[in-house]
Amino acid sequence: MALDSAKQLERNTRLTDLLARAAVSDQQAFAELYRLTSSHLYAVALRILREPAAAEEVLQESYVNIWHHAGSYVAAKSQPLTWLTSIVRNRCLDHLRRREIDTITIVKGCVDALEAEQKQAIALAFYQGLSHAELSRHLKQPLGTVKSWVRRGLERLKACLDGAGIRR
């Protein structure tokens, strides 16, 4: 156990030193910091985002952020790997929020592209929980017509979302 604590102390001291040197634009120190921490930080990003390409993108953004803000690291407040991990985690959460906002906009656009009858029938079925028979009575349309509106509307939504790369 003492050996683990000694190794951890040595690692923390090394990372703290590398961050301090990166804060004064020491590129070699930053490269060493990257070498020592990137696999751990990539694993954190991948665990949160679950997409290798997105994890790589966020990791790159995180290291740019680390390069620019290495001077703000305060050893008395947290261990260096904890500080680095929090940067990656926050970048991942920002990425997820942006992706969610983009998805909402795409879904809204796909719904807006539906014909009025399809949009109304699907909205009533989804938000009010109306069955096809209830939709038929509510809209004063034949059952077959209402079923067609819902089926065709859902097919158009699926095609639009698939085309936009939205996963269901």
Overall description:
The protein has 168 residues and is mostly helical. The chain is built from 7 helices and no strands. The longest helix is centred in the middle third of the chain and has 33 residues, at 80-112. The mean pLDDT is 94.
List the helices and strands and how they pair.
Elements: H1 2-23, H2 27-49, H3 52-69, H4 80-112, H5 116-128, H6 132-139, H7 143-163
Helix pairs in contact: 1-2, 2-3, 2-4, 3-4, 4-7, 5-7, 6-7
Short description:
This protein has 168 residues and is an all-alpha fold.
Q: Tell me about the biggest sheet?
A: none
Report strand %.
under 5%
Low-confidence stretches at least 5 residues in length (pLDDT < 50)?
A: none
CATH architecture of the largest domain: Orthogonal Bundle
Helix content: over 70%
Count of discrete alpha- or pi-helical segments spanning 4 or more residues = 7
CA(first)-CA(last) distance: 47 Å
Q: In one word, what is the shape?
A: rod-shaped
Q: What is the H level of CATH, i.e. the homologous superfamily of the largest domain?
A: RNA polymerase sigma factor, region 2, helix turn helix motif
**How many separate domains make up the residues?**
2
Rg value? 26 Å
Number of strands: 0
Helix-and-strand structural type:
mainly alpha
The helix/strand series, from N terminus to C terminus, equals: HHHHHHH
**Mean pLDDT score, rounded?**
94
Per the CATH scheme, the topology name of the largest domain is Rna Polymerase Sigma Factor, Chain: A
